[in-house]
Amino acid sequence: MDATPQTDSLTSFAPDELETPPLTLGQLAWRRFRRHKMAIFGAVTLLILFLYAFGGAFILSESYANFTDTSQRLSPPSASHPFGTDTIGRDILARTIYGGQISLLIGLTAVVIETLVGIVVGALAGYYGGRVDAILMRITEAMLNIPEIFLLIVMAKFFGGKIPEVEVLGRAYSGSVIVIVVIIGLTSWMYLARIVRAEFLSLKENEFVLAARATGTSNAQIIFRHILPNSIAPIVVSATLGVANAILAEAYISFLGLGVQPPTATWGNMLDGANNYLESAPWMWFFPGLLILLTVLSINFLGDGLRDALDPRSRAV
């Protein structure tokens, strides 16, 4: 019997197919994220909302958004006013654009404060432990007992008219915006601090931290260069969801008439202005309410997707 030469099955593959480079952490996270359909929907919707709020300012001016025409008051949606007009004839489409800028900026800036405070408190408590941990966690627990909405209402009422307007990039912001941002940021960091503390407690005894200590690396470098980058996933998710919570908190107190004061528009105080026209002029509350709903849902969907994508224990690729 003639012997048929046997060829190695590996020779039928090209070298590029044999040496597939391993995926980086970023590539793995993106692969997990793009499989989360609702997260993709949330990211796209959020991008559209940002383009609407900030890109719309290049089409419609703020003076037009604040222009009153009493002859057009409470006009339903039409070609000239796609979202209708309010009680003094202002265009609701233009006001949702500029109101969206304030609402989104309040959410983003409040979360910056929340994230910075939460990271510092949680990192110090988790890394040093002992008395430092006990003191910082007691402060955190005390802050958790302070009702955020009640404090927002009191502080906005007390400081709202005493802080002068601030002009940023050509826009004047009332002092109530600063009060709301600071109060939301300083009353929302506690949950993030607990998350960061738990991450630091689990990571500070790992080999790479012990090796850094053995080489004489300072505590500050260990905290911010070694442990913190490995705790970034839950921080990103918490910060993402914090934006939605800040927007809702602003909407709550603005609906009560104690938030950002007119003529500065936000989606929340636009709802307050529509309170007496729920049936006779539903367009006054429908459009700002819809924008708040879409923003909060999109941020929550995005946060869920980031949580699954950045989870190092996830096996889904």
Helix content: 55-70%
Query: How would you classify the quaternary structure?
Result: single chain
CATH topology: MetI-like fold
Biggest sheet: strands, sense, closure?
A: 2 strands, antiparallel
Please name the CATH architecture: Orthogonal Bundle
Give the strand content.
Answer: under 5%
The CATH H-level homologous superfamily:
MetI-like
CATH level 1 class label:
Mainly Alpha
Tell me the number of structural domains: 1
Q: Helix- and strand-based class?
A: mainly alpha
Mean pLDDT: 82
Which residues sit in consecutive blocks of at least 5 with pLDDT less than 50?
Answer: 7-11
Secondary structure layout:
Blueprint: H1 15-18, H2 25-34, H3 37-55, H4 62-65, H5 92-128, H6 130-144, H7 148-159, E1 166-168, E2 171-173, H8 175-186, H9 190-203, H10 207-214, H11 219-227, H12 232-255, H13 267-273, H14 283-310
Helix pairs in contact: 2-14, 3-5, 3-14, 5-6, 5-8, 5-9, 5-12, 5-14, 7-8, 10-11, 12-13, 12-14, 13-14
List keywords for this structure.
single chain; 317 residues; mainly alpha; two-stranded antiparallel sheet; 2% strand
What does this structure look like?
The structure is a single chain. The chain is an all-alpha fold. The chain has one domain: Orthogonal Bundle (MetI-like fold). The protein is built from 14 helices and two strands; from the N terminus they run H-H-H-H-H-H-H-E-E-H-H-H-H-H-H-H. A two-stranded antiparallel ribbon has the order 1-2. Helix 3 crosses helix 5, helix 3 packs across helix 14 and helix 10 packs antiparallel against helix 11. The longest helix has 37 residues.
